[in-house]
Specification:
Length: 259
């Protein structure tokens, strides 16, 4: 017998039966043996909180948002752990691989490290946090939550200031001169980098370029000084361009006088 329940048997005696004394060779007797199920430990787990670490009203398609889950648990076996997964609540599709906690005491509260969830389409994103006891204990808890996802806004950047040697001040032929740019940016997805270029208008040659640090959202940024050097006398006509992934977002023309 490999499952719980009543195990009905018939004893057929070929001689006097040791199980049922008094049975003859032609006698039989029906008996029932009760088989009990294995009793699992009475542990429990409950998801008490799901929160976005960044907690904006919305996130954009392609943006990642870190989510933390808090669980309370009771009566765990020694060395038990908890497993966290996230599912799409509408399709049941698992969004993440299981994240395992450290070995836990019998009862308490555990906050899982943040898990980054990436939005792939606009609309209300219905999700489910699933926490399971990773031991010989049948206890699983779930909690539904919703993230609002919008189409990404167009990235913007504007050159707001340029610091360089302005006429009537001059530089000498062959002299290096630094140029510094301030940029105001908006709607950058996390992980974005702006790139600033200085271009010689007469030759269309790139004279210098600098990358920004990693940026996101909206703000201001000052590029490190960019050193350029002229080989000719006269008015040196230049063009600055700020780009994102190869696309020019803004440009500024300026002139340096070379004596």
């Amino acid at each position: 017998m490999n499952r719980a329940g009543d195990w009905n048997l018939r004893v057929q005696a070929s001689a006097e039966s040791a199980l049922s004394p008094g049975l003859t060779a032609k006698d039989s007797k029906d008996i029932t043996i009760q088989v009990a199920s294995e009793t699992l430990p009475a542990c429990s787990v409950n998801v008490t909180k799901v929160e976005q670490v960044k907690s904006p009203d919305t996130i954009a398609v392609g943006e990642k948002t870190p989510v933390t889950v808090t669980a309370e648990y009771r009566d765990l076996l020694p060395r038990s752990t908890l497993l966290l997964t996230f599912k799409d609540a509408d399709t049941g599709h698992e969004m993440t691989s299981p994240l395992e906690s450290e070995a836990l005491p019998a009862s308490g509260t555990y906050v899982f490290p943040p898990v980054n969830l990436k939005a792939t389409e606009a609309g209300d994103w219905h999700l489910q946090a699933v926490v399971k006891v990773n031991a010989n204990c049948e206890s699983t808890a779930t909690k539904r939550f919703t993230i609002k996802v919008v189409e990404p806004l167009s990235a913007m950047a504007h050159i707001t200031d340029a610091q360089y040697v302005m006429p009537p001040d001059t530089i000498a032929v062959g002299e290096q001169t630094p140029v510094v740019f301030d940029v105001n940016y908006q709607n950058l997805v996390p992980g974005s980098k702006l790139k600033m270029f200085i271009i010689d208008k007469a030759t269309n040659r790139n004279l210098a370029s600098k990358n920004s640090i990693v940026l996101s959202g909206s703000g201001t940024y000052t590029f490190p000084p960019m050193a350029i050097q002229s080989a000719n006398h006269g008015n040196w006509r230049l063009r600055a361009e700020v780009r994102l992934e190869g696309n020019t977002l803004d440009w500024l023309e300026f002139t340096i006088k070379v004596a």
